[in-house]
Amino acid sequence: MKLRNKAAALLLLALAALLLALLSLRAGRAAPPAPLTRPASAPPRRAAPAPARLPGWSALPGAGPSARRRRPPRLRPRAGRRGAVSLKKSARRPGELRSFQAELPPELWIHLAVVACGNRLEETLVMLKSAVLFSHRKMQFHIFTEESLKPELDKQLRQWPDSYTKKFEHRIYPITFSAGNPQEWKKLFKPCAAQRLFLPVILKDVDSLLYVDTDVLFLRPVDDIWKLLRQFNSTQLAAMAPEHEIPKIGWYSRFARHPFYGSAGVNSGVMLMNLTRIRSAQFKNSMISTGLAWEDMLYPLYQKYKNAITWGDQDLLNIIFYFNPECLYVFPCQWNYRPDHCMYGSNCREAEREGVSVLHGNRGVYHDEKQPTFKALYEAIRDFPFQDNLFQSMYYPLQLKFLETVHTLCGRIPQVFLKQIEKTMKRAYEKHVIIHVGPNQMH
Ligand SMILES: *[C@@H]1O[C@H](CO)[C@@H](O)[C@H](O)[C@H]1NC(C)=O
Ligand SMILES: *[C@@H]1O[C@H](CO)[C@@H](O)[C@H](O)[C@H]1NC(C)=O
Q: Hey, what domains does the chain have and what are their CATH numbers?
């Protein structure tokens, strides 16, 4: 190992240790065995809403397994046992779930869609896990998949601990093409590839949707990307990140034989959509002078460009927004961070500043050795035992793994990958301390 790398490694380790020490110190000061010994004098009504808002944060420093915390801590001060969670699944206190839902009416849930085919089952589950680990708001998962994957997917999701399953509901759909001629569509595209284009038509009752590829990982609450919907101006109805930060060397500017959005095209691996607007809009196009509704446009558009497109539906989306640029909100690269953003040197400025918010391990990098930084993140989230302490069982091992990636260009900027995770943990930890210790100190 080079001297510089060694020094960087040592520095990282020291920082990690310092952070852990600091946090345990604060935990110690704030509330000796933090959440468990909430003063008996604290108003009891505070107990219920707190875990409801932060159901996943049993895994914080000082916190025990969530089986302890799901109950008002006063009542069962030392009841926690690691294995207790699954046994107690059926013993969910009815009031708890109700208060969680009461806080958030269904029209305020986050809707997250994914299309999982072939061998993408594990990836899909890890993506969904990252969404529930870090998010606060209740989510509805819309999972489109082949019949053969459905039972396993369903089973695994139901096996997650209670404190996590109550953060979401999931619906599993078959792959279908409800617009135009389904048989024709099936012939034209690989079955799964085009599915995302049809989501506005299939999910008729859903107002807005976050679509992600299976190889996406959330490194901060999904709530945060969902908020971008509110930033749409009156003509915008979808949001994506640029396909490349340096148009000159991006794929579209060099190779595309069809129109594409902007100077580098957009990447459809992370896509926010206001479906209500998409369903009611008329889209300009190269075929007829009047606008066309979304579902009436897809098939003719495909017919016209099928010999020129390479990436299937992403290319069609680029063509659509080339003709309708006022409809697209372009969000910065930190929301769809790919190996392209670091493998030739760091070129995503927003991620350098704010950290990676949504990681997109395309080109199969979670499963080979080409980008060990991406793989380390994937494995850290995949292997995290739900009920454990996030710092000890995810963040700390992740830092150690990163030390082995410093020989790659992506591995030289660990802080870019860790900044948001770190922030998320700190924020949740602080909330946690305030919720459980605060009442007494704030009165
Ligand atoms: C989507 O657009 C519709 C119509 O403009 C609007 O009423 C709705 O609030 C939008 N949804 C979100 C989440 O912004
Ligand atoms: C909304 O923003 C887009 C992209 O910046 C722009 O092209 C469009 O004109 C804007 N629409 C309105 C109504 O300002």
A: 110-331 (3.90.550.10), 346-436 (no CATH)
